Amino acid sequence: MSHVLDSISFGAIVTVRDRLLAQQAAGRRIYRLESGDPSFDTPPHVRDAIVEALKKGHTHYTASAGIQPLREAIVKKVRRDNELPIDNAEQVVVTSGGMHALYLTFRALLDPGDEVILPDPMWTEIAENIRLGGGVPVRVAMDLESPTPWTAAQIEQHITPRTKAIFVNTPHNPTGVVLSRSSLREIVALAKKHDLRIISDEAYEHVIFDGEAHVSIGSLPGAEERTISLYSTSKSYAMSGLRVGYIVARDAAFLSRVKKLLRCTTNGVNSLAQWGAAAAVGAPQDASRMMGAVYQERRDALLAGLAGVDLLVPYVPKGSFFLWARIQPSWRGYRGARSDEAMTDWLIDEVGVGSSPGSAFGPAGAGWIRFAFSCDTREVEEAAGLVRQVLGQAGRTSSRSTGMDARPPLP
Ligand SMILES: Cc1ncc(COP(=O)(O)O)c(C=O)c1O
């Protein structure tokens, strides 16, 4: 008998990580550009708050929706920084990371067979969590050649009577696309027209480049009641192992379902991690800004390092810490749509550089590759140098008949 979990993968990125770690254990120098774990130490005020909480004996059950000081700090933060019209801490639920926030949201929102529209490509776990919630992921391809890569007009063509929600992720994993206020406004208008919910994953709200502004879709007129906004402390405060995320919404019926799910599953997030998150969210956001500036340096280093590599055409990311690049047919290992898996394996074997095959992120990712630049700056620079070296003339096929190489970066 089959089960929904039989259709869920163990994750292509986990497979790459396991291969890299096995090589590291065998004494090889490896480069961890396969997954997005911030290299920074968790800020000192957050670590101090955790130690303090431990000393004070905050080691008991907490309210399953989260400790009050954290929920109140979140209310202040989302009103101030995200401009969300949130009234009080009852509209905030603390979760075990953004991943758990996604699981709870789809589980509490969807009825069997409900469709959720999401971008293609998209971080693998979104479609899987939609399926776990009983829903059907409907992928709408991004147009990375366009200045507006994901529009309401593209989305509308995929709306059916079963569509329940539009999933929005800006800044976007894996492409680094940042959706503009006007694109988001149009998505809100579309959601209103078809009476759809909006699920807004803002895990990378603080990782944004070139002076771009992060716009929370839930702050836009008409989106207030229909939007569920999801956040994570993993990337914003380098707290990935502490596992704290949160859901913000105004819909009382949805929130009460989430609270029941929490009570019957994790029954609340680790108390010490919540005290750490309260310090992170409640303090001035200088540490997040500093990290954002360093990520921009790393992005630039990676783009500069790959500038001479005409076998890869990168999309210039405006946010998140991923570089998404199209593999050119003149690469000697080119295998059409399967080139991404081939190149991921090849870069590990040749130079110990990790990456993620684009097809792990959906059909639109076939033939693309993702490099994460969340590891430290030197590692990013060295890895770029190695990729450049190995994809130089040695990586090229002798035939240049395709004429598709040497293209400039995508906008
Ligand atoms: C788009 C997106 N959303 C949510 C998350 C969840 O992160 P976490 O579970 O560490 O909070 C991630 C993690 O990589 C992500 O890429």
Pick out its properties.
alpha/beta; Aspartate Aminotransferase, domain 2; seven-stranded mixed beta sheet; 37% helix; 14% strand; binds pyridoxal-5'-phosphate
Explain this structure to me?
- The chain is an alpha/beta fold.
- It folds into 2 domains: 146 residues, Aspartate Aminotransferase, domain 1 (Alpha-Beta Complex), CATH 3.90.1150; 239 residues, Type I PLP-dependent aspartate aminotransferase-like (Major domain) (Aspartate Aminotransferase, domain 2), CATH 3.40.640.
- Helix content is 37%, strand content 14%.
- The protein has 13 helices and 11 strands.
- Helix 3 packs parallel to helix 10 and helix 4 packs parallel to helix 5.
- The radius of gyration is 21 Å and the shape is globular.
- 51% of the residues are buried.
- Pyridoxal-5'-phosphate binds next to helix 4.
Give the gist of this structure.
By secondary structure, the protein is an alpha/beta fold.
